[in-house]
């Protein structure tokens, strides 16, 4: 009897999220049945992937759609962040091989964000089991254009799509990919607030810091991808896909003010500042530290949700908002160290 391995294409393997998911695939009980190809732009890391982890590595950038398309054509499962070429490849695969490829895409709860600018908390809470509610999101929302393209592809019937939407991810992953210098270990939002606060000498906050976001630990959100992957492979008919295939990654909520207070406290404790109390970023500071007012104000938006569909897979995140807040001081210490400013 011939035995075919599950061909998996992985984009974003060197990333903060992707590395943690890939590390889990490498230690998965069925790892021997996986034939994993990663697509990445760093030649040195491609060498590490091949020599240390036995992966196939193809070097290229996301602009090289032809390469991605042909890799996707060879994959039954894709973990992705470059959508058009992947959809083209999977469509061709379905036409020639006839199987139903699986696309696990990363979006983000940024798709839910509003324009509160830190001035209020919203009562609107999105539920990943409520497809109508998600479908009503305006097309102009962050991530939305790609999410809609993916769900449309699922409707066409040549693949099944699953979209994971992590929230504010925190914590530093620990795994062999990190030890090998292959995976990034720094998240986006909290580190950005920390770097800005260090630069201005006092913790900053957007508006009054009243708006609310969810958070999730890096290792626990990686568990969600694996729960999803295992469920889709084992019981494809029992897992929603397409418009029913959104999975929020959240395990607690914070106000942005809570994070800024934790940063202020940590900075004072570490000898970097005299006043723990955050002050409001000026419009000029939003541009200076976050690239634009829109980017900066994102850290004062609301994005409330419940991952009920995620939990229906058996995903059980244990970390809470308190764990997230406790992760702030070590993150401040690591960033100070990286900036060469540990000693004050
Ligand atoms: N971190 C969070 O809190 C969070 C929360 C929700 C959603 N998200 C979303 O999740 C996605 C991944 O986030 P992350 O935190 O894991 O980011 P990250 O650490 O920056 O990882 C991004 C990955 O994509 C690869 N990549 C980016 N541009 C590329 C290009 N032009 N060609 C080839 N590869 C490219 C990077 O490769 P290199 O290593 O070569 O740069 C890296 O592997 C993003 O879309 C982000 O918006 C993140």
Automatic annotation (TrEMBL):
Higher taxonomy: Eukaryota, Fungi, Dikarya, Basidiomycota, Agaricomycotina
Membrane-spanning intervals of the chain: none
Occurrences of domain NmrA-like (ranges): 5-81
GO CC terms: cytoplasm
GO MF entry, a single one: aldehyde dehydrogenase (NAD+) activity
Official protein name in the record: NmrA-like domain-containing protein
Cited SUPFAM superfamilies: NAD(P)-binding Rossmann-fold domains (SSF51735)
Source organism: Meripilus lineatus
